[in-house]
Amino acid sequence: MADEDEENTMNILIATDCHLGYMERDVVRGNDSLVTFEEILHKAKELAVDFILLGGDLFHENKPSRKTLHGCLELLRQYCMGDKPCPVEFLSDQAVNFGESRFPIVNYEDPNFNVGIPVFSIHGNHDDPAGMGNLCALDILSVAGFVNYFGKTTSLEEISISPVLLQKGATKLALYGLGALRDERLHRMFVRKKVSMLRPTESKEDWFNLFVLHQNRAKHGPTNYIPEQFLDDFLDLVFWGHEHECIIEPCHNPVQNFYITQPGSSIATSLSQGESVKKHCGLLKINRRNFKITKVELETVRPFYMEDVVLSETSLNPEEPEVSKQVEAFCSEKVEAMIERAESEHTGNPRQPDKPLIRLRVDYSGGFDLFSTVRFSQKFVDRVANPRDIIHFMRKKQVDKKDFK
Amino acid sequence: MADEDEENTMNILIATDCHLGYMERDVVRGNDSLVTFEEILHKAKELAVDFILLGGDLFHENKPSRKTLHGCLELLRQYCMGDKPCPVEFLSDQAVNFGESRFPIVNYEDPNFNVGIPVFSIHGNHDDPAGMGNLCALDILSVAGFVNYFGKTTSLEEISISPVLLQKGATKLALYGLGALRDERLHRMFVRKKVSMLRPTESKEDWFNLFVLHQNRAKHGPTNYIPEQFLDDFLDLVFWGHEHECIIEPCHNPVQNFYITQPGSSIATSLSQGESVKKHCGLLKINRRNFKITKVELETVRPFYMEDVVLSETSLNPEEPEVSKQVEAFCSEKVEAMIERAESEHTGNPRQPDKPLIRLRVDYSGGFDLFSTVRFSQKFVDRVANPRDIIHFMRKKQVDKKDFK
Ligand SMILES: [Mn+2]
Ligand SMILES: [Mn+2]
Ligand SMILES: [Mn+2]
Ligand SMILES: [Mn+2]
Question: Which residue ranges of chain B lie beneath pLDDT 50?
Fold first, then answer.
């Protein structure tokens, strides 16, 4: 892809699952989600992208607290309002794309708002429409003119997705969005051929087709996920939200012949392996039918280290008297090593928190005694962000439970 | 006051206590508050006022529902955004007036928002700052650029109020605002001389001084209100929020030599006498040091009729057999008459609801028996908005409890 062909290249910052408000009442971690959301917006501004595309779960709670809603609006106003003209032409019928909105107009074309970097977003399962008026938190951002919320469906029977059609120079983007639905329901609709993606009638082949969705990608049960092959094969790229592990590097699906990018969350909402992978947002460049994603490391994410130990594979002997103390000392050392590693691997970004998240999974099968995690936590209370749940005791290769994202 | 001197006349729409979201889950009454708020904004637009001034309790709940917040933003976007230039110059230091805001700039001067009719508001006791970050619902409207929220104080010890200084032609307005505080606390601060109102240093006499506050005006207890004489006598006009009865006609206080206008709420939140008075907003015109308030009837307010009967003063005889049935029939007739009156006095505005609020207070002292209000309500369930609490039984001139506004 020709890097210099700027006037025909759409630059999109992609990010997802920011979970604003996660642990907001925690004295240590309360601000983490907003800090990294600010970093994402800051990067979008630095990179002078044409727009930002979010994949759902912007908010952690369906009803975000006033503080979190306020913090989000504050950041959007600070970073996304402004004089920078958006060089992307909006071609599709806005009354269709934003049909669920009281003001079905893309914010950067509304003469009452001066939008520098438009944000487009679908909803996730954490911030889906609910309650009176079937509204979600994104509807608040949308009615305030701060976000272009799309991909809201109302029918429970069938879905037809009309793309947002955008053009910059010779590049034409058909952007399909589908906000989170219950996996089983959407799975069933796919099986029954009740999901259709509408395509531009003319010069179909000129369009780059991008689909953003927020569903289980991993198989949690027979119908509790969306198999990749369910998705239309005319797609060029699928932006998969909801899965928190960062696998942003496009992954080719050879059967469907499309790519999938999974940016992953910008904050760890569980102490699982997938969340301990380095977190990124991405710069998606689209030039005609070609694209490239550049990983952009998020430097303000709280460091998170995770390790497994199997006591029976160590030199510790469950028969020895006081072995429990030895186990505790052994675990302490492990944790100390992770804390040190966190220190040495600090990104240098002044807004990255110092206190890391630490998780040590201890397989104690083979007759070992547990030790008191309360006492253990006290040793690390000032140096670890999650002192109370550092240690996770388990037995014999217990399967790592997938957390709800 | 010269009516034609437009270029030197500030036109302000004054309204208060809109209580958005009041009874929002009631099938019949759920939308009343938003309907009348829309009428107020519509009138502001029709009258082409320079700005709107609200006196607190814009929201009924401290944490408005998503639907109510959304509805409010929707209306503000529809009516208050737009190309009409605001001819009022802002003279004071915005960093002081809006010091509690992350964006201390009046919205109509912010280049990112195209504001047609600015709204200025203080908070009431229903929508006062609380919780994490000490934020209130108006902070959400403010950070979104929709409302200029002022009069937020943080010190519990003393208050000094810096006016918003506005000028239009030869008219200079010093607008003082004080969001609701606990009456006892503010009363004590006044007694201890801890409340001061700062005045412009130069040409003091040129300014028209308007103070908007949201406190008890009626004496509910020794210190549970703010006596009018506590307020500075340099004031020209006091805009008193919180009291729901419409007494918008300026009332002269001869001791302090200022006027008080009490617009009253735009929706009845209790079935009390004060709330049954016709509701208005006002057009406040200020020309140099003179002012005039024109009452503007609110035509969409749900009709509310209230009547008292004292059974012992009627021809009904408590000794008669079946008198309870006679009493019920008597009350039915009264209610029927009020319903008829509501029909005949309908404003004709298509958005004024048909079903009235009806309250009949029945003094049954003198040995009368009560009748079943459940059965009574069934007669009116389709014709009255509050069938279940039409009748209020009481004895011997029981003092009408003041409801919490
Ligand atoms: Mn999710
Ligand atoms: Mn998520
Ligand atoms: Mn009040
Ligand atoms: Mn009130």
Answer: none
Q: Say which DSSP state A125 is in.
A: S
Q: Write down the pLDDT at residue B201.
A: 87
B117: tokens are 């009719």
What is the signed CA dihedral for B236, B242, B243, B245, rounded to 10 degrees? 100
**Cβ distance of B65 and A102 shorter than 8 Å:** no
CA atoms of A43 and A63, how far apart (whole Å): 27
Q: Quote the ligand 2 centre to A297 CA distance (angstroms).
A: 18
Q: Residue A99 and residue A154: Cα distance in Å, rounded?
A: 11
Cα–Cα distances in angstroms (integers) from residue A243 to residues A219, A259, A261, A267, in the given order? 11, 16, 11, 12
- Which residues share a beta bridge with A90? A166
Read off the pLDDT band of A154 (50, 70, 90): confident
What are the tens digits of pLDDT across the range B248-262?
999 999 999 999 999
Q: What's the angle, vertex CA B28, arms to CA B298 and CA B243, rounded to 5?
A: 40
Model pLDDT, residue B396:
79
Interval A180-188 mean pLDDT? 97
Exposure string over A220-252, b if 16+ CB within 10 A, otherwise e: eeebebbeeeebbebbbbbbbbbbbbbbbebee
Helix, strand, or coil (residue A378): helix
Taking residue B239's Cβ as centre, other Cβ atoms within 10 Å add up to: 28
Q: Which of B83, B143, B152 to mutate to test the interface with A (most CBs of A within 10 A)?
A: B143
Instruction: Report the C-alpha gap between A99 and A89 in whole angstroms.
Output: 19
Percent of chain A with pLDDT over 70: 97
Catalytic residue list contains B126: yes
Number of Cβ atoms within 10 Å of the Cβ of A374: 9
Q: Which residues of B275-311 are buried (b: 16+ CB within 10 A; e: fewer)?
A: bbbebbbbbbbbbbeebebeebebbbbbbbbbbebeb
- Within 8 A of A135 by CB-CB distance, chain B residues are 66-67, 70
Q: What is the pTM of this model?
A: 0.95
Round to whole Å and give the CA distance between A156 and A346.
Answer: 47
State the number of CA atoms in the 13 A half-sphere of A259 facing the CB.
18
Q: In whole angstroms, give the CA distance from residue B127 to residue B290.
A: 32
Measured in residues, chain B has a length of: 405
- N- to C-terminal Cα separation, chain A: 34
Residue carrying structure tokens 């904050």: A267
Torsion sign (Cα): A385, A391, A396, A399: negative
> Which is it for the CA torsion A36, A39, A41, A43, positive or negative?
negative
Q: Kindly state whether B147 is in contact with chain A, defined as any CB-CB distance less than 8 angstroms.
A: no
CB distance B149 to B139 below 8 Å? yes
The pLDDT assigned to A42 comes to 98
Identify whether the C-beta of residue B30 lies closer than 8 Å to the C-beta of residue A95. Answer: no
A201-206 mean pLDDT:
89
d(CA A238, CA A175): 10
Q: Cα–chain-centroid distance for residue B270?
A: 13
Radius of gyration of chain A (CA): 23
Quick count: other Cβ atoms within 10 Å of Cβ A165? 17
Q: Which residues of B touch A82 (CB under 8 A)?
A: 112
The answer to whether the Cα torsion of A363, A368, A374, A375 is positive or negative is: negative
- Listed residue (A72, A77, A106) closest to A90, CA to CA: A106
Q: ipTM score here? A: 0.95
Please state, in angstroms and rounded to a whole number, the distance separating the CA atoms of residues A380 and A386. 9
Extract the tokens encoding A251.
């992954």
Contact B280, B248 (CB under 8 A): yes
C-alpha distances (whole Å) from B99 to each of A377, B228, B318 are 42, 28, 65
- The answer to whether A70 faces chain B, any CB pair under 8 Å, is yes
Q: What are phi and psi of A288, to 5 degrees?
A: 50, -120
